[in-house]
Amino acid sequence: MTLYRLNHATAYDYAEPVVIGTHFMHLLPRSRPGQIIREARLEISPLPDNRRDEIDHFGNFTTSVSLTGAHKQFNVTLSATIEVEQPLPPAHTPRWEAIAAWALHEVEVAEFCLPSDLARPVGEIADYAAVSFRPGRDMLEAVLELNQRIFNEMTYKPGVTNNFTTALQILRTRTGVCQDYAHFMLACLRALGLPGRYVSGYLRTLPPPGQEKRRGADQSHAWIGVWLGPEIGWVDFDPTNNLLVSNEHVTLAWGRDFNDVSPLRGVILGGGRHSLSVGVDLEPVLT
User: Fold this and answer.
1) What is the pLDDT along the chain (287 residues), one digit of tens a residue?
2) For the chain, what is the domain count?
3) Residue 175 maps to which CATH number?
């Protein structure tokens, strides 16, 4: 078990006063098997006129705020203490074809087999995925190979994609960041009728002793969850770092793709040009 202290600070600075601002956030982490939220606090400045904390369709925590007083800064800070102890999947799992058939009859799983805007399966993506998913192959074995192929065959390069880049574009350029790796892997799974969900969260800032720093640390990170059947359930994979997710990751939210779990989005009146700074620290607590 690893106990983490998480701090995520987002700051907007505006050239001109913002007269009205409305913001929607996925910034409070959720509990899940292998993850317990000991405490979490979301501080917002200026103090909003209205704030609503709710739970969305996927069970994620959401926060909606509105501000009507003129302001030139908007700050959101998450502080949390989280316990992580991810169980490992069994060494052998059912055939992938069996899992695809079972998923259609599981209400909370079936929707993750369907296309989404950023992870839409097409023929070229199905051909790529089929290399790993040979007939009758063990599901876990096939997913681990796909995870490694994407890691090996893509180039991690910030600044060349955006929040609208699709899985097909990634297949053709083979370049992007964690969000793009995740969308491409999801589209591969869905092309074969397999359930996959987009997971947003955080990666340990400093790796365990003797290991290289992970791609995507010091910022929000993204990976995927794969359903391995009714007995095993969901298991997470990080194609950006070629990892079977264990105790280095903290889950924030999940959905069909990034659009379902964007950390912070909104509409403002005024403001002019603005600058954005984001800082993330996920550090183990010495106990």
Assistant:
1) 899 999 999 999 999 999 999 999 999 999 999 999 999 999 999 999 999 999 999 999 999 999 999 999 999 999 999 999 998 999 999 999 999 999 999 999 999 999 999 999 999 999 999 999 999 999 999 999 999 999 999 999 999 999 999 999 999 999 999 999 999 999 999 999 999 999 999 998 776 676 777 876 767 999 999 999 999 999 999 999 999 998 999 999 999 999 999 999 999 999 999 999 999 999 999 75
2) 2
3) 3.10.620.30
Domain co-membership, 104 together with 11: no
- Name the burial class of residue 136, with classes exposed (0-12), middle (13-18) and buried (19+) by CB atoms within 10 angstroms of its CB: exposed
Structural domain harbouring 279? 2-85+262-284
Cα dist. 276→11, 27, 273, 279 in Å?
Answer: 6, 16, 10, 10
Residue 138 is classified by DSSP as B
Instruction: Provide the total of helices (H) and of strands (E) in the chain, helices listed first.
Output: 7, 14
Residue 90 located in a structural domain: no
**160 located within any domain:** yes
- In whole angstroms, what is the distance from residue 276 CA to residue 263 CA? 14
